[in-house]
Design a protein that fits this description.
Radius of gyration: 26 Å
Structural class: mainly alpha
Distance between the termini: 52 Å
Strand content: under 5%
Order of helices and strands: HHHHH
């Protein structure tokens, strides 16, 4: 039985997830929370405040209305959990879910195939190493 072991998320993935959670939390509380976070960033460690200011300008959180970000935050929450927001078309949603499941199965099978290839390569290298050791003349110790 082949068991699929999902790779552990990297440190950068975990940091990205944490920052996305903080972003969503601040988005839910509005522009005032972003401004407060920026001010506190400047007070405690100015590069953090500057980074928050830059992010607010770059992502247009500084100048836009809150309702625009509510839609994006909701969509990001769906996407970050691996779900897609329902489209309202039941046939399309069923097709999309079935296709995504098939792709996930194919991905898992491909990862299993790659694992078997790595194991075969490792075995071949080990066998070659052992053959090389067997062929080497042994020095006699006196």
């Amino acid at each position: 039985m082949n068991s699929y072991i999902a790779p552990r998320p990297s440190v950068l993935d975990r940091i990205g997830s944490a920052l996305a959670g903080i972003r969503d939390w601040l988005d839910e509380r509005g522009k005032g929370a972003w401004i407060l976070a920026m001010i506190l960033g400047f007070v405690f460690f100015w590069p953090v405040g500057l980074a928050i200011l830059g992010y607010m300008i770059w992502s247009k959180r500084m100048f836009s209305c809150r309702h625009r970000h509510d839609h994006h935050a909701r969509h990001d929450r769906f996407a970050s959990r691996g779900y897609s927001a329902p489209t309202g078309n039941a046939a399309f949603d069923a097709y999309r879910d079935e296709t995504l499941k098939r792709l996930e199965d194919e991905h898992r099978e491909f990862l299993d195939f790659l694992q078997k290839l790595r194991e075969a390569k490792d075995k071949a290298e080990f066998d070659q190493f052992m053959q090389g050791r067997k062929d080497e003349p042994r020095e006699l110790q006196s």
